[in-house]
Amino acid sequence: MTTFLATIPSPDRGVWQLGPIPIRAYALCIILGIVVAIWWGERRWVARGGVKGEVTDIAVFAVPFGLIGGRLYHVATDWHKYFGEGKNPWEALAIWNGGLGIWGAIALGAVGAWIACRRRGIPLPAMADAVAPGIVVAQAVGRLGNYFNQELYGGSTTVPWGLEIYERVDPQTGLKDDLTGVALDHTPIDVVHPTFLYELLWNLGVALLIVWADRKFRLGHGRVFALYVAGYTAGRFWIELMRTDPATQVFGQRINVLTSVVVFLGALVYFVLAAKRGGREVIVRGDAPTEDGDTTGATGTGAAATGATAAGATAVGTTATGATATGATATGATVTGTTVAGATAARSTTATGPAAADAEDDPEDEGSGAATGEARAGADARTDPTAAPESRSSDSRGE
Predict the structure, then answer these.
(1) Structure confidence by residue, pLDDT tens digits, 176-208
(2) What is the DSSP string of 295-357?
(3) Range of the domain at 248
(4) Quick one: 320 and 272 in the same domain?
(5) What gap in Å lies between CA 379 and CA 89, rounded to an integer?
(6) Whole-prediction pTM
């Protein structure tokens, strides 16, 4: 009992057979992480003024792109596992055996999210801020898959939380099989630093940090996402230095160590530059109800209003495609720079101004996206018969 409590035992296997179907713990952890990210992202998006279901729509693009990107990065940086004498190149496609690079997953996943956001007229930075905490928690859940696979650990250690590593074999042949085998003998062949556990705990800490900072400082314009990236890479830097598994070396360092430094600096620069754009934007969707439940006067699909939430606020540079400013009313609001273009409703319009009351970013309060006292446009904007057809906004949609 004393020996057991002094170390962390590993699972005896990472794959279970359900008839002819292999049930892989790694795959289940990835799926569970994705579900958590979408669920939490939906709640945060609605709290910011978005429409329920939009995060799921974005995920339909982002998740496949992310999985492909993660696998491409893994294969590119660990090519020696799949190419060369005695290697099977087709194994590069076997994503179910593990091997996803977070850098490629986030990069290509962001491309998929950008495509989906453009199709729906959603500002990508605002969406990224909403889903950032869920993504880093999903990464933490995914690290449990490394535990079942007995991978991503550090050097030998005598610390009480050291991880026991067992030899796994094929029960039928007795041959060594680290990935799909079973540990028949639970005598550890080594006790190592559980670096996957360190990263799991670090990721949960980053999630708490960015949620706290978001509520405290009303972050917006992609700064929550940038803070997540900076926080994650700061931890990945020192954790990567502890790992002992083979990895591609660049300038005498593991490639992920250098990648962490570069990405951290990029995230820090973005965070500082984005701060100049002001506080958090409140997404006002065309089909989202206003304060009193009336959708009349909602600013249009994809509109983002930074702080223009109180009566008397000033909205600058508002674009209205296909509607005249004549007849549009707002409670004490002043609208300047209105552009008439000859269609129906603008997408991704950003209005800046002082915020007397912002939408409260409470993940437990769905539907709190529109702030109390929000300036609402009045009902009957009239179509301008003189507007030239060729001046219509390419972002408008005739619904």
Answers:
(1) 999 899 999 999 999 999 999 999 999 999 999
(2) -TT---TTEEEES--STT-EEES-EETT--STT---SS-EEES-EE-SSS--SS-EEE---SS
(3) 2-277
(4) no
(5) 62
(6) 0.74
